[in-house]
Amino acid sequence: MSSHDRMFLAGILAVALLAGPALAFDFGRPATPAEIKLWDIDVAPDGRGLPDGSGTAAQGKQIFADNCAACHGDNGQGGIKDRLAGGQGTLASNTPVKTVGSFWPYATTLFDYIHRAMPYPTPGSLSTDETYAVTAYILSLNGIVPAGGKVDKESLPKLRMPNRDGFIPEPEFDPAKLFRKK
Q: What are phi and psi of 55, to 5 degrees?
């Protein structure tokens, strides 16, 4: 047997040994409800999934300064990352300014995004109450919540964002047409 044949057989043997455990039928275990709950943190536009807790815009101002202003600027403007405040009434202009207050259709989406993805580089490091507070503060910067306003899982879904009706679905993507049974 040549050295080339021996190398070929050794390669096949290595692949077989590595693939064997991956094909095991008894691999892993079902996730527990507690483990699932740790990852099941998404929030729907209607508020389903919002956790218990609350926060005020006044509380959020300091949390924003400590965790968000370095990227988004003081008062949500002028930072190196996306502008969060202002822009109302500009979407139909030649220079639209897409911010939370001018573009986003649901306040719950703001909470969801902050809770899962912010602050950079430590996403998920804010507590639920801190996330509600930062949400309230950003909404207050956009005139959607009063400066002393408070948000929680009951009030946040009820807030009407200025661009709530600005998203018009294309007829070809109508769920009734896409998912109808033939």
A: -165, 155
Distance of CA 28 to the CA centre of its chain: 29
pTM exceeds cut of 0.85: no
Q: Are 153 and 52 in contact (CB under 8 A)?
A: yes
Which tens digit of pLDDT belongs to each residue from 45-103? 999 999 999 999 999 999 999 999 999 999 999 999 999 999 999 999 999 999 999 99
Neighbour count for residue 80 (Cβ, 10 Å):
8
Q: Which H/E stretch holds residue 133?
A: helix 128-141
Residue written as tokens 């930062």? 134
- Chain-centre distance for alpha carbon 114: 6
The answer for residues whose C-beta is within 8 angstroms of residue 13's C-beta and 6 or more apart is none
For the four alpha carbons of 137, 143, 147 and 152, in that order, the dihedral sign comes to negative
Residues 165-174 have pLDDT tens digits of 998 878 887 7
Which residues make Cβ contacts (< 8 Å) with residue 75, sequence separation at least 6? 85, 141
